[in-house]
Amino acid sequence: MRHPIRTAVLGGAVLLAATGCTAATGDGTAAQEETLDVSLAELVNESARIESELDAAENRIIRACLEAQGFTAHDEEELHTPEPLELESISGDHYPHEASFPDPDAAAEVGFGQWAQSEEALESGEAAAYEEDHGEWVEDPAPVDNTAFTALPEDERRAWYVAYVGEEKAPGYEWKFTSDGEMMEDPGPVTVDDEAMDAQFAKPGGCELEMIESLYGEPVLVESERDEEGFDQWVYRPANPVHDSGAWTGIETAYAEAMTEEQTAFTDCLAERGHPGWEFTESGGLPVWEYFAPLYLDEDLLEGSDTGVEAPPLPGGLPDDYEGRKAYEITVAVDFTECDAETGYTAASVAAYDQAHIDAYTEIEDDLYAWQTEMNDALVRAQEVIEG
Prior knowledge:
The chain is built from 15 helices and 2 strands. By secondary structure, it is mainly α. The longest helix has 39 residues, at 30-68. The two termini are 39 Å apart.
């Protein structure tokens, strides 16, 4: 599905979304909840559009700064503004259970579709037919034409990055000015240059700093330990409250708490049908791939997945042939759909996930309005800078 892009508005402030949101209580009517969901989604969408317009304005200012110094070819990947995402629902397009549950209308025919990864299915064409009928297809965005920049000599590309972000930060882009810009299919072992790594976190300079100072003032160093938990980072644009990781953690926690009884009822139902040992992950899924993959793949292809829970052991006495194992998968899939219908799991999951999002986004509603107002002011300043 392609989402429409709105032309960057630089002639004046972007209007705030007229959402008319009210606090979610979880006990409203279905119509009230749907109205609130839609209005919150529009509030989030408006914030995404403002972010996109700010990206475009910042890149336009940087481009003009570089061209004033004589640079006519630019790294278009760096100065490209992608289309903003548009949510139809505050919960997005997918629910936590969906990746683990088979399509109830097709379970008796194709099971979970895990058999499509087998050598037999790939060689026979069954896998391709399955993907054509049941796969999710997302149109890739048009590639950015960066040939004019990658055709430049290395020293000219290096000079561009120095002008772009300053002497201290430029080495963080080393691979882009010491190669033709194309990633190799198999680069082999990658050695991370400590100097280049450190440079990524250096204070911005060059045209990037000029843009920052004209729109936001001096960048500020946000300090944290540079490990898997975080790193030192120079920030300048106030962050969109939607991106607060704490909000996402709260959504996952609220959803997990709301689904405790339903998850127990569902796994109990599976156990009664001869499939004991299933356990939901923290994110609300089930280790379906980890369970079926050993039926179809070599052991050396099974590493690298960590859902946080162990898949149940496969029962003894399973068929050795592909068709027999596929038939077993279909049997399990049918039992999943019947337990889903018996326990009402899907309906409960959708309701709980929607409510968790509504509650979380209602909490940051005022912050989103304040952020939009502040960023609209930045867009006005950007217009003034661009017009000179």
